[in-house]
## 1
Amino acid sequence: MRTASDNFWFHGIPPLESGAALFGEHEADVAIIGGGFTGIAAAYFIKQRFPEKRVIVLESEFVGYGSSGRNSGGVTGLLGHSCLHMKKKLGIEKTTRLLQFTFQSVSLVEELIKKHDIDCDYERAGRLVIAEGERQVRHLEEQAKASEEVGAKTLWLEKEEARSRFGGVNVLAALYLPDEGVINPVKFLRGMKRAAESIGVEVYEHSRCTHIEPGPMMSLYTSLGSVRARDIVMATNAYSNPLGLLKYKVLPFYIYQITTEPLTQGQLDEFHCKGQQNVFVAKNLYWAARFTADNRLMFVECDTLFFYDIECDYSHRPSEYRSHYRLMIEKFPFLKGIKVTHQWGGRIGITLDFLPSVGRTGKHNNVYYSMGYNGNGLGFGQLAGKMLAALMAGENSELTNNMLINKPMLGIPSASATYLASHGLKFYYKTRDRLLEM
Ligand SMILES: Cc1cc2nc3c(=O)[nH]c(=O)nc-3n(C[C@H](O)[C@H](O)[C@H](O)COP(=O)(O)OP(=O)(O)OC[C@H]3O[C@@H](n4cnc5c(N)ncnc54)[C@H](O)[C@@H]3O)c2cc1C
């Protein structure tokens, strides 16, 4: 992404209301680095809990500049991987408990929208996972069984029913997850920023934190000012590495998406489109398609890329847009010639176990953090904000007593090791996907 205008979510909404930059020396109770879902939700819930505290957010560009403004707008309670994968890694009991907890993020998003009257095109559209071939059907059956075992609500759809919901390709069967939603993430985040500001949170934009000086009072420096705060919150997810704290715990992987002009009625009919359906194909490196509120198709190929130079930004990549377009037309030939109006990329923060970690660290125990969402941070980012506020309050509840709290993040020894490992892993997944297509 070069500018916000590359990104569909900034299309047709009022221009950026750029906030003030931090200027001069400040004292605060809590200083939060990062103005995405995590940072704004943390600010909101902390201020709500401690109205007397001065809570400041520092954002290097503008609120929504990072992944929170660039994602596909799927509101899910799932974490980085499928129920099947989680069940294999954690066992049935732990996965069940964890998902029961994380699925609260969907209702939390709904609650926040309602409470603050946020106009963000939200729809509880569910998630449709489709199988295009016989082997994918069997893979999907395994997914369905695992979902049932861990208590995730799903509905198995036979061919006719599946095709009536998504006619884009020759679907043989599908798994429907009803408890998920879709949203315009930028509208939602702006609504949350307004809600946080209305209770007294101060959000400073164009205020990159360049340096952190740890101590019982933490000092954060920007080019024009500084903040001394008792507690800080690291809400920088896939952008965390340059700051030094929690370095190389979360790896920036890149993912790209394209959005078409509004579809014609004929094209919508081909898709059997009803609302903002969110469709994924049952593969490891899947493609996904969702419809927007104004009937465009947003297409993502989840063939994430890791680049050796971890400090550089690779979120604008025309070769990726072209390959997305080719795949989209291969899948949906009736879209041939359609114009792509927006194309952009962003980072997802990957951890070695595909799970996030939320906690408190540092010599003075005053560095709070939440990161490593592995591509599922829209809903979870809100829950994380609530968890951080509960941790700060010393609360003893499921918000502070669950396996994600202070979960060690293994991190990586070096960028070259990650580069090799990511290519190895991708080769493995691609081979498995090819088998699923046979
Ligand atoms: C293409 C794409 C599709 C996705 N689709 C989905 C989806 O459908 N559903 C879903 O749940 N998740 C999805 N995700 C993931 C989701 O967007 C992220 O997990 C989530 O946005 C992370 O939120 P965050 O606030 O933690 O981080 P971010 O939104 O990345 O926010 C971090 C912020 O910190 C700022 N920052 C960084 N360094 C500094 C500094 N030194 N000083 C001040 N500010 C700093 C950055 O500018 C940025 O704004 C997707 C991601 C991408 C890229």
Note: The first strand starts at residue 24 and ends at 33.
## 2
Amino acid sequence: MSERTMIEVCGLGKCFTTPVGMINVLSDINLKICGGERVAIVGSSGAGKTTLMHILGGLDHPTSGEVFFEGENLTRFHGSALDAFRNRTIGFVFQFHQLLPEFNALENVMMPLLIGGAKRNKAALLATDILKEVGLGKRLTHKPGALSGGEQQRVAIARALVREPRLLLADEPTGNLDSRTSDDILSLLNHLHQDRGLTMIVVTHNIPLATNLDRVVKIEDGVLVEDVLN
Ligand SMILES: Nc1ncnc2c1ncn2[C@@H]1O[C@H](COP(=O)(O)OP(=O)(O)OP(=O)(O)O)[C@@H](O)[C@H]1O
Ligand SMILES: [Mg+2]
């Protein structure tokens, strides 16, 4: 495993302003993740796991503190530069999939490739391959509404992985999956980790999955506790 720091979070805090006042969700979070590391994030519902993932993926901004990606301050990226960085570097599995309902499974998975400038034929081949890897070779033309919850989750995982990102941010990727499919997804991720050194940050309530990764951190009362299960 490369020892190079990929992500460094320094003094990160996040508040939300609501009609009934400010909510302080994250306080003084400090975290360092090396290239090739597999980190699980656990914590109770509402602890701030999704909020942290969105900030790590450049989808939201912290109220205080900073996030560095290989030494570059993420908060300095804006607009199309941020979009290009995300598309090139990060695969994101959202907690609630966020598949495009009017497009079928294949088209959903092709989307990041097309946005990245790939030709349609090549995008279709790569998307088909990864959908087969997640066990959906026979569901290519189904729209999300005609897929089960677990199948939608697997399409979202395929979409996150199709551009061979260096960093996978996955928010409860196995939340809707039975234990066998969940094990299959874990083996796929571990295979990608071994093959390409994929760095992974995975939010999960699935303790066997968490303990299978290199490190488990917990968010509790807005602060981060390191190595909770080790
Ligand atoms: N845009 C927002 N405006 C106001 N409050 C928010 C906003 N987004 C999240 N919150 C609040 O921040 C807290 C953390 O939310 P978050 O989605 O990060 O939790 P979580 O740890 O992912 O929970 P779960 O396990 O249920 O997915 C929650 O109390 C939530 O209500
Ligand atoms: Mg969440």
Note: Residues 16, 18, 23, 25, 43, 45-51, 95 surround adenosine-5'-triphosphate (ligand 1) (CB under 6 Å).
